[in-house]
Amino acid sequence: MSDSASAELLGQIRLHGRIPRHVAIIMDGNGRWARERVMPRTYGHRAGMQSVRDVVEGAIEVGLETLSLFAFSKENWQRPKLEVSALMSLLEEYIQREADALDDNGVRVRVLGEIERLTPPAAAAVSRVTAQTAHNTRLDLNLFISYGARAELVRAARLIAEDVAAGRLDPGAVDEAEFAGRLYTAGMPDPDLLIRTSGELRISNFMLWQLAYTELYVSPVLWPDFRRAQFYEAILAFQNRDRRFGKVSV
Ligand code: FPP
């Protein structure tokens, strides 16, 4: 889609005015995109990195507070070794290339998941960009890496058990807020909108707690072809939804 078509969509989003605070994305379809071109899967991941750049810029334009991207699941460690190491290198490359631009644009980068499992160079890049952008306030960019929602929930339960065992927390005081405060997303708003690309109708162990009232949007477009215009279309679709949170419309 042309730049002017994107600008038109952005204009419509602003006119509508109900801007989501937090959008989460399951970026899917890199492998299929590469296969369609008779190329290795890593070619698709590299193209997907361009989509990440474009969508982050789009999120800033729209005025989101938080953008969450599911970049690498716990299950992804089971992919062939070469693909896993290519994904680690791409993460490192993305951070190296983008850190200054993200910082200049006021983006605070956070990485959520079992970061202790990352390769040392990827972990070092993550620490650098996290520290470099920690002071920014325009957009929170959450990269979910080596992340699984069930593991996140179990971790929160363990942290609560430890606090109770140590006498820091009364079991009767364990409520939703105490629990949410022990998730990786502590202090962040829940996503208003979840986008999944490539047409799959699954949550795939992503943000199971946080998505309780999130609007779902599935795009048939494969992630490397999902750019700013497609992102804006998803937000426009969200703006036309009727969110009731279990209540009735007024
Ligand atoms: C899903 O496609 C995508 C991934 C497992 C990796 C996502 C990574 C990127 C977009 C690039 C790097 C990102 C950052 C933030 C640096 P798939 O391989 O499951 O595709 P398929 O379902 O068609 O096989």
Major sheet: arrangement of strands: 3-4-2-1-5-6
Total count of helical runs of at least 4 residues: 8
CATH homologous superfamily identity: Decaprenyl diphosphate synthase-like
> Which ions and ligands are bound to the chains?
farnesyl diphosphate
List keywords for this structure.
alpha/beta, 8 helices, 250 residues, globular, Undecaprenyl pyrophosphate synthetase, 6 strands, six-stranded parallel beta sheet, single chain, binds farnesyl diphosphate
Summed up:
The chain has 250 residues and is of the alpha/beta class.
Task: Explain what you see.
This protein has 250 residues and is α/β, with parallel strands linked by helices. The protein has a single domain, classed as 3-Layer(aba) Sandwich (Undecaprenyl pyrophosphate synthetase), CATH 3.40.1180. It is built from 8 helices and 6 strands; from the N terminus they run H-E-H-H-E-H-E-H-E-H-H-E-E-H. The protein has a 6-stranded parallel sheet with strand order 3-4-2-1-5-6, sandwiched between helices. Helix 5 links the parallel strand 3 and strand 4. The longest helix is centred in the middle third of the chain and has 24 residues. It is globular. The site of farnesyl diphosphate has 19 residues, from helix 2, helix 3, strand 2 and helix 4.
Task: Please render the helix and strand layout as text.
Layout: H1 3-16, E1 22-26, H2 30-36, H3 41-62, E2 66-73, H4 81-104, E3 107-112, H5 120-133, E4 139-147, H6 149-165, H7 176-180, E5 193-196, E6 215-218, H8 228-239
Parallel strand pairs: 1-2, 1-5, 2-4, 3-4, 5-6
Helix pairs in contact: 1-8, 2-3, 3-4, 3-8, 4-5
The structure holds farnesyl diphosphate (FPP).
